[in-house]
Write a structure and sequence with these properties.
Blueprint: H1 16-34, H2 39-58, H3 79-82
Helix pairs in contact: 1-2
């Protein structure tokens, strides 16, 4: 019998995008049942909300687009390329 490295006292961390998706589903169900919104309209706006939130999560790794200049040094590499070793990669580009 193998021992598991997962300790029961360690809390499970749910990513923020999952919480956002659950909030969109709850809001959609509430809109349909309470306010009488049509299901196709709720699905359409829920899909748009998920795309916007997903795009924000993709860009969460590097901040604003103007936050990282692309200047080339004497060696030909950009500032971003020189500092890439000590920075986590993230974002959509």
């Amino acid at each position: 019998m193998e021992q598991s490295s997962h300790s029961p006292s360690r809390s499970l961390r749910i990513p923020g995008i999952v919480w956002a998706a659950l909030a969109i589903v709850v809001a959609g169900v509430g809109a349909v049942t309470i306010f009488g919104v049509s299901i196709d309209l709720a699905l359409t706006f829920g899909f748009f909300a998920l795309m916007i939130i997903g795009h924000s999560v993709m860009h969460g790794g590097h901040g604003r687009h103007g936050a990282h200049p692309h200047r080339a040094g004497a060696g030909g590499e950009t500032d971003e390329a020189r500092g890439a070793e000590d920075r986590p990669s993230g974002g959509c580009h």
